[in-house]
Design a protein that fits this description.
Length: 288
């Protein structure tokens, strides 16, 4: 059975191939290894911005897949054009303004009375709260079985990095595991999960107006939405890391669970605003 990660990778390859074919038709040229140079790169990026109206990170994914393909072709001796190795032939990225949920907001979701709601919401609520407390990706959490669950820890080798992580089981995690006789709640597809967790966020009143900005078609666009509309499966993992950090858990200890390999990357990943940071350090002896 094909994993969700494998499906995403294949979909990403297909999207890149489709964009390159459309670019060929738009420019009236045939793409070959020899003509993939910096001029090609600039024209492709401009096409994806001006004609496709893509966001910066979407363009970045396309360039990333193209560079992966060119690297593989070079390794196999099919390509000798090294223009793509230039630092200017870069993958565009911007830090997405992803949200996290506070401990109170997670409690509000966990304490919802769902007795009059469809059973699916109860199961998704439990899976989401589990992820908020163990920091695993939902895809990894779905793989947890009795062999991974020890008396006091969950031990699992993550799909993305292949690293073994050992996560302590707190009282809330134990409560949810006991509810399902030591197993995981039933799983849903990522799309359904993301739809259902938004329903739960709305029911829990997590509706603060929240801005989300991204570079699209060359301009920064900002949308304001109720916070629950921005909750996804990955919000749980980001919430785990951010709340653990805010509670003083050592950064290196959190990174052992999240799999981040550099402190810089980790600190970019968590979501601590400047005001929150000021509040957090206000009680530090240095500021007394």
């Amino acid at each position: 059975m094909q994993s969700s990660k494998a499906r995403k990778t294949i979909d990403s390859y297909k999207a890149c191939r489709r964009n390159l074919r459309e670019f060929e038709q738009w420019r009236g040229l045939r793409i070959t290894f020899d003509n993939i140079d910096l001029d090609f790169y600039y024209k492709l990026v401009n096409y994806l911005i001006e004609e496709k109206n893509y966001a910066k990170n979407t363009i970045g994914y396309c360039i990333k897949e193209l560079k992966l393909f060119l690297n593989e072709a070079t390794e196999r001796g099919l390509n000798t054009n090294m223009a793509f190795k230039s630092r200017k032939f870069k993958v565009l990225r911007e830090d997405a303004e992803n949200i996290y949920l506070t401990e109170q907001e997670i409690d509000d979701i966990y304490n919802l009375d769902l007795s009059n709601q469809p059973p699916r919401l109860d199961k998704v609520r439990d899976m989401f709260v589990l992820a908020c407390n163990v920091g695993l990706r939902i895809s990894d959490l779905k793989r947890v079985n009795s062999s991974n669950i020890k008396e006091k820890t969950i031990n699992i080798r993550t799909q993305k990095t292949g690293e073994l992580v050992v996560i302590p089981i707190n009282s809330r995690v134990r409560e949810i595991l006991d509810k399902y006789d030591g197993a995981m709640p039933p799983a849903y597809s990522e799309q359904k999960f993301n739809d259902y967790i938004k329903e739960l966020g709305e029911l829990a009143g997590i509706d603060d107006p929240t801005n989300k900005s991204m570079t699209k078609a060359g301009s920064v666009a900002t949308e304001t939405k109720p916070k629950y509309m921005l909750i996804t499966s990955h919000t749980a993992r980001r919430s785990f890391a951010t709340n653990a950090y805010k509670n003083g858990v050592p950064t290196i200890a959190i990174m052992k669970i999240t799999g981040h390999r550099s402190v810089k990357t980790f600190l970019n990943y968590i979501k601590i605003g400047k005001e929150e940071n000021a509040e957090q350090i206000a009680n530090h002896p240095f500021f007394k």
